[in-house]
Amino acid sequence: MLEQIGIQFEVEASDYEEHIDPGLEPHRLARKLSLEKAMVVADRHKNVIVIAADTLGVLDGRILGKPHTESEARRMLETINGKSHSVITGFSIIDTAQNKTLSRSVETKVYIKKLAPSEIEAYVKSKEPLDKAGGYAIQGLGAVIIERIEGDYYNVIGLPLSALAEALKKFGISVL
């Protein structure tokens, strides 16, 4: 997605072990997780700008995790079936040369179609829901289970490009 908006970058995994604090409001949690990921990478480098993000699904105030098994994916899809939920992405930017940090979060409302049990099963069998926040990938086969969204499509994928471009201006980086 960064290539799409003309940003040159290198990917470096943070290997940060996420700790979900159920006491934190979802926007704060998403920002906290993205910042902690960014800090791990920033500690390894001088004179770089680090961007990190974390995406959460939220239904009725409850965090929808990332299913790791088919049975978890099935349960998650049954939970969101025919309902709307929020996707919240927190992103953080750290300029290690200037010791400057910024964290933001963006929320998009996603409406899931009412799916037949056979449709849920077929989607689970595709393996796409595994390790995806909320149990689906809007940019893949999961597009067919989405009725509509309110907000930033790229946020649902995992990085709200418009908000990121706006935030990068504070670091002297202009996309346009």
Write up this protein:
The protein has helices at residues 26-42, 70-80, 117-125, 153-157, 161-168, and strands spanning 49-59, 62-64, 84-95, 100-112, 146-150. The chain is of the alpha+beta class and 176 residues long. It has a single domain, classed as Maf protein. A five-stranded antiparallel sheet has the order 2-1-3-4-5. Helix 2 runs antiparallel to helix 3.
User: Which class in CATH terms?
Assistant: Alpha Beta
Largest sheet: 5 strands, antiparallel
Average pLDDT works out at 93
The CATH architecture assignment turns out to be Alpha-Beta Complex
- Assign a percent range to the helix content: 25-40%
Provide the CATH topology. Answer: Maf protein
The poorly predicted ranges are none
Task: Tell me the distance between the termini.
Answer: 15 Å
Count of DSSP-assigned helices:
5
How many beta-strand runs? 5
Task: Report the principal-axis shape.
Answer: elongated
Percent of residues in β-strands = 25-35%
Number of domains: 1
List keywords for this structure.
28% helix; elongated; five-stranded antiparallel beta sheet; Maf protein; alpha+beta; single chain
List the topology elements:
Blueprint: H1 26-42, E1 49-59, E2 62-64, H2 70-80, E3 84-95, E4 100-112, H3 117-125, E5 146-150, H4 153-157, H5 161-168
Helix pairs in contact: 2-3
Q: Summarize this, please?
A:
This protein has 176 residues and is of the alpha+beta class. The chain has helices at 26-42, 70-80, 117-125, 153-157, 161-168; strands at residues 49-59, 62-64, 84-95, 100-112, 146-150. It is built from five helices and five strands, in the order αββαββαβαα.
